[in-house]
Known about the structure:
219 residues, alpha/beta, five-stranded parallel sheet, four-stranded mixed sheet, 8 helices, 37% helix, 17% strand, binds adenosine-5'-diphosphate, binds guanosine-5'-monophosphate
Amino acid sequence: MLEPAQTRSHSSRRDRNPAASLSCADVTHSEIADTPRSRVFVITGPSGVGKGTVITRLREMRPNLGLSVSATTRAPRAGEVDGVDYHFLGQEQFAEHVAAGDFAEHAEYSGNRYGTLRSELERHHETGGVVLEIELQGARQIRAAMPEATQIFIAPPSAETLRERLTGRGTDSAGDIERRLAVAEGELAAQNEFEHVVVNDDLELAVRQLDAIVGGRDG
Length: 219
Ligand code: ADP
Ligand code: 5GP
């Protein structure tokens, strides 16, 4: 079921980015598409695989690498800060942003909506690149709109490990964990779509592999 891939890695969203403005800059598709390939990194993988954890570690090593703060209709978890972990929006606010074309991508995941504001991509345009931590549907939308972006899938060493990590994180209800694991089946089946796959078994190794990809040293 889980095939070892070329590379394998892990990370979390606790990235404490400088608070971002929710103002939606008028960034056009072409401006986004003009962003050099090496500057946009899409990181996808099932919930609980460790995306946030590896991204945090990666950004400690690469302080100029920005993180896109996503918008979501999900309720904040304990400790999550608006504008840092997410832009927490109501259904109506989210729908307004969709209608205004403010999102570079957006998707529904496990009963909530998530999206990348174009203003987040613009915010990091002049820095050392930007990481988008997003789920599969969003990654596909970015791939279609920005084929030059680097796409990285973070895979778990096994399905059992994924369940253990989701449970061990202690942030989601039993029902939500089951829903996330059900979504994970489809996500894992899609990993071959990705240019890079990093298996997050040993954290240090995964971070090194991710860093090599971001640094353009991955074969
Ligand atoms: P995601 O952002 O993909 O949902 P997290 O970064 O929140 O996942 O990680 C889920 C849980 O797994 C966290 O408790 C984290 O500490 C743990 N974790 C992440 N990577 C590893 C790893 N390589 N080995 C063991 N535990 C890990
Ligand atoms: P969580 O609720 O655990 O924070 O996130 C659930 C899922 O939504 C994760 O797979 C996460 O990567 C994804 N996600 C977070 N932000 C975005 C976003 O802006 N767009 C999309 N498509 N997915 C996102």
